[in-house]
Each structure stands twice: as structure tokens, then as C-alpha cells.
């Protein structure tokens, strides 16, 4: 048939929004849409720091894709993409091949380790349901091991590399969880060390300094030991070497210090910067009018020429524009340029605490924590309506 084929790779924030908008906007038989994702569920990445620390169940951070999309309008394929072949307009999956007329790439990011020796091999990262289950179990296991080998206090030392939003949110949760673990395993709290190590001269680089200071004060009171302006030089199974050669012995290193695009994009021959493609104003890859790249895989610059940080917020907005432009392209109508509208940023600092900027105002403490919940509920509403809000929403 000559119905155009649209293939969307990745059902993350960008891919899901693209699919949801397409299913609404396309007329019957106007296009065949296929959504491909590694798992049959979408994960709410912005929640993952909680199940990783063990303060929430991983179930609350995932939603079955079949509950989100209309399978009469969109074909969902659960598979892993292994190669993108732009010359043939084909995508190779682990168990098959798909051809496309229009492609949307939203495969999300991968940890960037900046070539720091040992980090890729020995550190864990917060990126999927599977990875957070591993982190949670690993942390609990260290407490159990310590009880059998009480001279090994290094089992009770936890290192988080990176004090960006993910690192800060994770140490906030873990600092809340540690007292519970100490009670459950009869461990003296003073033996447990939680380090947050950041190479930049400040935590949350670029964020409002007053809020950063507040956040660090809250977390320090909860027992977090900050090492700011201190680089991790090396990571091994026995811990990390930092700054001038100081060794922090630990069996648990969690790296949140960098994110890059997908290797599949580099391998496909696109020009990339750290695995991200600089897209045009319509979100298309250079010299590929039929390929849209969104979310953590795309690179866009603001008016000052600085790259937008990869966030769920921008990925969602790109998904909306991408769907609009696909429909317009199919109908030979003019495309829309993408303009990011920054709604603000809020970071949680564990239970009942947070910091953020929204609606042009600063928020801290309990108000920021509420705001964070509101943003989460809004997202659930956007992708799944009231039923999803009621099933997965956390109101308290
Ligand atoms: P993703 O949401 O990462 O989705 C990519 C999808 O592609 C996934 O479903 C994955 O399984 C799938 N996939 C990957 N490779 C393959 C393959 N080879 N084959 C098939 N499928 C594949 N942003 C905010 O705006 N606010 C926040 O508060 C916030 N908090 C965060 C907290 C944490 C702990 C983390 C890790 C991130 C946070 N972010 C936040 C960033 C945000 O989650 C990302 O920017 C966003 O998820 C990017 O969306 P995406 O659509 O590009 O990719």
C-alpha cells in the first residue's frame, strides 16, 4: 500500500508523547504507525531515584504501554533496536526488520563516564526499572554482608558520583532510607557514610545559588557528606580515587554525573556530539527530512547558544511538535518550528523537602515537594488521564 509508514523508536517521554498525539491527529488510513520499545512498559524516569533508594516500589514507576496507546491505531512492537539503516530506510530489531517512510528516534540517553577509568565497569546507574532493582538489592545486601563481616565498614560506605538533579534527588532518598536500613539490620547509623562527589565547583551547576545552598544544608543535616569541586579519578571494585588521590573504599558506586545520547545513532552515521544529533528547527536530522530526533538523543541550543539540558520536559514538548510535523509533512502542509517553553525545574530532597524554580518564583521546603508531586500528577494525567492518576499517583 502507499500509506506512509511512521516508525517511532523508544517509548520514553518523547516517543510516548509523539505516539499519543499521532493517534489523536491522524485520520483513518492516513499513516501506519509503529512504536518500538525494549520493554512492554514505559517508565517514569523522573521517579526512578525513589525505587533505586528503596523508598518506593518500582511498580509505581512503570506503566504498561498497552494501557497508554490505542492498539487499533498504533502497532506496538516489543523489541530491541540493534541498527538504524538510513540508506535503506530500515530499522533492524533483535528479531526482525521494519521499514519506514518517516522515522522518529527517541531512544533516550546512556551514562557518560568521560573516560574515567573503571566507572563504566564498576559503577551502577539509575536508568531503568531493571537498573534500580539492582541498586536497591545491592544496597540492602551490603548491610547484610556487614553483619557477617563487622570489620568491613567499607560495605556501609555509599558513593554517589555527580551532584546534578539525579544525584541530588537520589542522595535525598537514600539519606531517608538509611535510618530504616540501620534499624532493619541493627546497624549503628554513625558507621554508614553517604558521599556525594561532584567535580564542578558547585552542586546543581547553573541552578539558583540560594536554592543550592538550601538543598545542601538540608542534605547535610540528613547525613550526606559532600565533596564538591572534587573529581572522581578512578573507580574499582574497592571504591573510588578522588581529587588528589584520596581513596574512598566502598562496594557501592552510583554514577549520575553525565548523560549522552544513544550509541545506535553514532553507529547509524549521523554527525553527533556525545551521541546527540543537532536537529533543525523542525526537529529533523541534518540532510534527512524524514527523520525526527527527540529527547535525550537530540541537541538544541537556546538563544545564548548553550545546549538545552536533556530533560523529560523538553522531550515531551518535542514529542508534541514532532507529531504535529509528521502529520503536516504527510499532508504537505507547512511544518512548525520547535520553541522550548521552560516551565521551571523542581528537585526533591527526600521526603517533604525540595527546591525549585517555577512560574518565575523560587520554592523551597514543603512547597517545593508539593510542586514536584503536582508535576508528577500532571504527567500521569497527560499520558493516561484520570485513571492513571488514580492508579499510580502518589498524593501524600
Ligand atoms: P527515555 O525517557 O529515556 O526513553 C527511552 C526509551 O527507549 C526507553 O523506554 C527505553 O527502554 C527505550 N530504548 C532504549 N534503547 C532501546 C533499544 N535499543 N531498543 C528499543 N528500545 C530502546 N527530567 C525532568 O524534566 N525532570 C525531572 O525531575 C527529571 N528527573 C530525573 C530523575 C532521574 C533519576 C533520571 C534518570 C532522569 C530525570 N530526568 C528528569 C531526565 C529525563 O528522565 C530524561 O531527560 C527523559 O527521560 C528523556 O526522554 P527520552 O524520550 O529522550 O528517553
Automatic annotation (TrEMBL):
Question: What cofactor does this protein call for?
Answer: FAD
- Work out whether the entry's keyword set contains Membrane: no
For this chain's UniProt record, which GO biological process terms are given? aerobic electron transport chain
- An example Pfam family from this entry, by short name, is Pyr_redox_2
Q: Where is the FAD/NAD(P)-binding domain?
A: 5-319
Q: What is its EC number?
A: 1.6.99.3
| The UniProt record lists the keyword Kinase | no
Q: Provide the alphabetized UniProt keywords.
A: FAD, Flavoprotein, Oxidoreductase
Q: Which GO molecular function entries does the Swiss-Prot or TrEMBL record give?
A: NAD(P)H dehydrogenase (quinone) activity
Domain of life where this protein originates: Bacteria
Protein family per UniProt:
Belongs to the NADH dehydrogenase family.
UniProt-recorded name of the protein: NADH dehydrogenase
UniProt source species: Paenibacillus pasadenensis
Amino acid at each position: 500500500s502507499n500509506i506512509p509508514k511512521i516508525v517511532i523508536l523508544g517509548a520514553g517521554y518523547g516517543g510516548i508523547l509523539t505516539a499519543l498525539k499521532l493517534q489523536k491527529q491522524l485520520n483513518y488510513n492516513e499513516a501506519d504507525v509503529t512504536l518500538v520499545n525494549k520493554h512492554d512498559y514505559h517508565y517514569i524516569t523522573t521517579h526512578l531515584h525513589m525505587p533505586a533508594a528503596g523508598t518506593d516500589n518500582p511498580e509505581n514507576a512503570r506503566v504498561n504501554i498497552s494501557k497508554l496507546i490505542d492498539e487499533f491505531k498504533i502497532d506496538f512492537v516489543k523489541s530491541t533496536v540493534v541498527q538504524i539503516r538510513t540508506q535503506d530506510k530500515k530499522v533492524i530489531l533483535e528479531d526482525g526488520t521494519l521499514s519506514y517512510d518517516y522515522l522518529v528516534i527517541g531512544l533516550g540517553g546512556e551514562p557518560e563516564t568521560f573516560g574515567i577509568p573503571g566507572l563504566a565497569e564498576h559503577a551502577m546507574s539509575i536508568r531503568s526499572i531493571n537498573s534500580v532493582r539492582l541498586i536497591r538489592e545491592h544496597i540492602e545486601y551490603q548491610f547484610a554482608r556487614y553483619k557477617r563481616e563487622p570489620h568491613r565498614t567499607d560495605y556501609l560506605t555509599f558513593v554517589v558520583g555527580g551532584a546534578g538533579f539525579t544525584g541530588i534527588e537520589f542522595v535525598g532518598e537514600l539519606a531517608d532510607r538509611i535510618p530504616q536500613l540501620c534499624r532493619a539490620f541493627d546497624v549503628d547509623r554513625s558507621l554508614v557514610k553517604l558521599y556525594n562527589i561532584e567535580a564542578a565547583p558547585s552542586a546543581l551547576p547553573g541552578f539558583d545559588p540560594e536554592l543550592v545552598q538550601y538543598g545542601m544544608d538540608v542534605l547535610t543535616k540528613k547525613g550526606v557528606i559532600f565533596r564538591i569541586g572534587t573529581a572522581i579519578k578512578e573507580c574499582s571494585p574497592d571504591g573510588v580515587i578522588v581529587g588528589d588521590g584520596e581513596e574512598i573504599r566502598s562496594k557501592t558506586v552510583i554514577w549520575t554525573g553525565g548523560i549522552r545520547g544513544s550509541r545506535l545513532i553514532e553507529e547509524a552515521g549521523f554527525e553527533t556530539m556525545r551521541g546527540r544529533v543537532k536537529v533543525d528547527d523542525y526537529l529533523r536530522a541534518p540532510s534527512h527530512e524524514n527523520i525526527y530526533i527527540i529527547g535525550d538523543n537530540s541537541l538544541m541550543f537556546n538563544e545564548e547558544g548553550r545546549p538545552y539540558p536533556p530533560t523529560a520536559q523538553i522531550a515531551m514538548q518535542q514529542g508534541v511538535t514532532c507529531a504535529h510535523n509528521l502529520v503536516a509533512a504527510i499532508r504537505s502542509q507547512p511544518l512548525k518550528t520547535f520553541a522550548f517553553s521552560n516551565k521551571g525545574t523542581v528537585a526533591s530532597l527526600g521526603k517533604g523537602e525540595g527546591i525549585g524554580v517555577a512560574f518565575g518564583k523560587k520554592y523551597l521546603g514543603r512547597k517545593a515537594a508539593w510542586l514536584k508531586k503536582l508535576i508528577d500528577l500532571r504527567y500521569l494525567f497527560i499520558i493516561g488521564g484520570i485513571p492513571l492518576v488514580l492508579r499510580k499517583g502518589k498524593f501524600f
